[in-house]
Structure formats: structure tokens, C-alpha cells
Amino acid sequence: MAKLTKRIVESFETKAKSYFEWDSEIKGFGVRIMPSGTKTYQIQYRKGGRTRRASLGRHGNITAEQARSRAKEIMGEVSKGENPVEDIAQHRRAPTVAALCERFFEDHAKERCKPSTQGEYRRAIDLFIGPAIGSFKTVDVERKDIAELHHKFKHKPYQANRTLGVLSKMFNLAEVWGLRPDGSNPCRHVPKYREQRRERFLSQSELQKLGSVLTRAEQGCSETRYVVAAFRLLILTGCRLSEIQKLEWSFITDRGMELPDSKTGARLIPLPQAARAILSALPRVSDNPYVIAGKSPKGFATDLQKPWRRIRKHAGLEDVRIHDLRHTYASNAVSSGMPIQMVGRLLGHTQLQTTMRYAHLADDPVRKAAEENAEMLSKALEVPKSHGNGCHAIS
């Protein structure tokens, strides 16, 4: 045994089998000489009745003194009762973020989330999370890594915030699965970007334009009667697109539309008489369970975006999305004086906060009532009509 130095290490000869040479000063510090000639610095100690050994680096990549310094650190940790080699081994075995993503998708998303949500998660994983931090060890991800990823997409605030949400769910589950310490979610305290929520409602005149275009499209057969019925039902019920698109005849009962599943679970949607009239006028396609029949004999209309773009163009409403029909339903309900809680129930919202985006519209009937009331009172008071600033001092 001798003190391991550059000269000493390079003097060790290659043999048919690998062998160790140990340092004379630091117990457990040595070098392994492989038949290939590769020489690797090693640290070895016993812990819990077992021999623990780890590589400190290849000779040439690190110096003998660098290896010696690291060996001293490790043996110091061992003397304190720690097991650094096992920690290193566990870290090497620790899953990457890419592996966490796949476990999250297979064990969580596929079992607990609807197909549409699964699609959103898959997109976030494949396009944003994987390319940025997929190669990181799950245990090594820090808040600054998440903040940097979030900041990278600041020009797309909605996408940046949705990706942050997916990451937060993933790292919460990483704690549940024992892959990270409790309370270590690196997404905590990363502020979301402000989102400009779009609020586009159709006015009465715009609804009339849309109604005329739908009638002409149906009469002229430029769109199928099922497509036209879908848009009318969306306006009259405030349903989500998928709820009408995948509506089955068996879901329609005397109580309304009894959906066995929706974005928020099983849901009963009231069917006003106008909506029932549309449904009663639709012919049923033999052996097709869907109300909005599509091109395939037993399927629903899978693409309503293309016909909607044609319809809105003819109506001069090219900035209106299909989802804005749901906004229009909600805005009309609130503006007519319907309590916000009731509107939330009609829309199938699980949280009042979601419906509160329409709360400011409730002021409209109040202002109208105030104006009408003041008009009646002003007549009794014989309040003159305003003709500019005609104030005069009373003498």
C-alpha cells in the first residue's frame, strides 16, 4: 500500500483480471485497474453489515487529489452515521421527469381523467414538459427550473399556466409515490400569468342574423339538418359542444337530457319546449344511437368546426367561436335577472367562481329598473328635461 498519487496510479500494471490498489492514508480509498487499462478511483466502507462501494471517477478525468478530497468527504459522512454510497445509488436509480410523466399519464390520467383531459395532458407532456426537463431526475427539479419553463412560454399565458398546472399535479403525485419529500412540490409559489378571458356574447340582432343563416342553410341543404340542429341546441341549452355532439337518443327523457357522463360527471340538463321541438323534428337514423348523426352510419358528427366557420361567415360573425354560444346563453340568463347560483346549475359548473365571470351582467336589469323607477318618479315631481347647464342662483 502506498499513498495514491498520479505517478503511483499510472505505474500500476494491467492484468488479466481487474484488481484494486488501496491508499495508505485514507482507509477505503483506492483505485481499480481493469484489464482494458482503465483506472477508476473507488471508495469502500461497511454499513449495516454490508460492503458499500462507489466510483469516484476515472483517472484522467479527475486527478488523484480530487478523488482523495471526495473520499475524505464521504468517509466524514460515514463517521456521522450516514450512508452516502447508498444515497448515490438511489439517486442513480431515481426516475427521470420523463419517467414520471409516463407514470402520471398511465396511472393517473388514464384511470381518472376523461379522454379530452388526457389529450391536454399528453400534449403538455410531449410538447412542453418533456423537451424542457424530461432528462432531469425527478428529485433534482427545483423551483427555478419550473419558473424558467413557465417563463419560456410567457407569450402564450394560457398554455404556460395549463402546463404549470399539469406539472403541479405530477409533482404532488411524486410525493404520494415517495419519489420526492413531502411538501417539496417545485411548482409552489410560481405565479401564474394573467389571462385575458374572452367574453363574447351575441346581441339580439346578432342572434337574429345567426338564426336567419341557420334557416337558409337548412332549407338550401348547404348544411345537414343535424348540424343546424346542433347549433340551435347549443344556443337553447347552454350545453358544452361535446354534450350535444355526443348526445344519444336514449339520454332524452321526460326530465330532460340525462347525461350519464360529462365534464363534471353525470348531469341532468333541462330541455325547454323550443329545444324539444327541434329534437322532435329530427329524423332518427336507423341503428344510429346519436342525435347529431354524422357521415358514418352509426356515428355522430365529429367535426362541427368547419360548418361553423361557413355559417358564421355568412352571418358576419367571424369572431364568434362555438363556445361563445354557451357564453351567450349564460349572459342572457344573468341579464334577465336569474340568480347566479341558478345559472351555474344550468351550465353544470361545479364551482360558483366559474360562474362569477358573468356576475357583472346582473347589473344590467338593476340599472334598467332604476332608470324606469326614476322616470316614473320624475313625472310626479315634474322634473324638467335637461337642456344643458341652466343653473341660476336663487336670490
Q: Indicate the structural class.
A: alpha+beta
What is the CATH first-level class name of the largest domain?
A: Mainly Alpha
Which fold name fills CATH's third level, the topology of the largest domain? hpI Integrase, Chain A
Widest beta sheet: strand line-up? 1-2-3-4
Please count the helical segments: 16
**How many domain units?**
3
Number of strands: 6
Mean pLDDT: 88
- Determine the CATH superfamily of the largest domain: Intergrase catalytic core
The span between the termini is 118 Å
- Percentage of β-strand residues: 5-15%
How would you characterize the largest beta sheet? 4 strands, antiparallel
Query: What is the string of helix and strand elements?
Result: HEEEEHHHHHHHHHEEHHHHHH
Radius of gyration: 35 Å
Helix content: 40-55%
What are the low-pLDDT stretches, counting only 5+ consecutive residues below 50?
none
Gross geometry: elongated
CATH architecture classification name of the largest domain? Orthogonal Bundle
What order do the helices and strands come in, and which of them pair?
Layout: H1 6-11, E1 19-22, E2 29-33, E3 39-47, E4 50-58, H2 64-79, H3 84-93, H4 97-112, H5 115-133, H6 143-152, H7 157-176, H8 204-219, H9 225-237, H10 241-245, E5 257-259, E6 267-269, H11 273-281, H12 305-314, H13 323-335, H14 340-347, H15 352-355, H16 363-381
Antiparallel strand pairs: 1-2, 2-3, 3-4, 5-6
